[in-house]
Amino acid sequence: xxxxxxxxxxxxxxxxxxxxxxxxxxxxxxxxxxxxxxxxxxxxxxxxxxxxxxxxxxxxxxxxxxxxxxxxxxxxxxxxxxxxxxxxxxxxxxxxxxxxxxxxxxxxxxxxxxxxxxxxxxxxxxxxxxxxxxxxxxxxxxxxxxxxxxxxxxxxxxxxxxxxxxxxxxxxxxxxxxxxxxxxxxxxxxxxxxxxxxxxxxxxxxxxxxxxxxxxxxxxxxxxxxxxxxxxxxxxxxxxxxxxxxxxxxxxxxxxxxxxxxxxxxxxxxxxxxxxxxxxxxxxxxxx
Length: 288
Description:
alpha/beta
């Protein structure tokens, strides 16, 4: 591995389809992403790569992904962008539009790449019609094969849903990877040098030490969760951020780069209301 590797972590881009109205799009995510990519392009040194850890779009239709493609192309970046899928993404929209793929549209989007001696593994933790994350049959086998293929290299994992931090709180699985898959992931990673896991989904900056592995969650580019209100439910504020990661021989460091925001309330609901919202979301998605 190179002595020092710099990269950028984006998450929860929630890019919308400009041709379709969307009451659940709370900010101009296209403008925010364009601004952030211009800032990324100004960084010195230039990052070696960008990871975008899911919820690339707000509705997952082809128009959303075309808008994302246009924003990325207009930024003129000279670095690879590695995408993960989140619960707002749709595989049948992502594959044809972003990859030109017309078959296996239901398959999880798992992929890996070695850059400067760093093994980056991207796992699809999205579950169709669900808010929380989980793995489908075969994904952990694929992960184990990847880990073994480059066993000597340090690993950076990217997935939309972070591992569950509290294994005795199944009612909170909507905000993380499922408890069962969290434990299975821990077992799979045990003998390897995992320098970090990059995630999103919960819309606030959080760094956790998960069994010795740094787990970094970002606010993202759509809106910010008010962490001072979590005892009541979810209060959504204006706000966006991205992260600059630096991997040194001493380990991973993360620097958050927030965008200016007045923390204006965009939406809020109590935990009781959130339960109803989740049921409505999952039933609506299933119907579609």
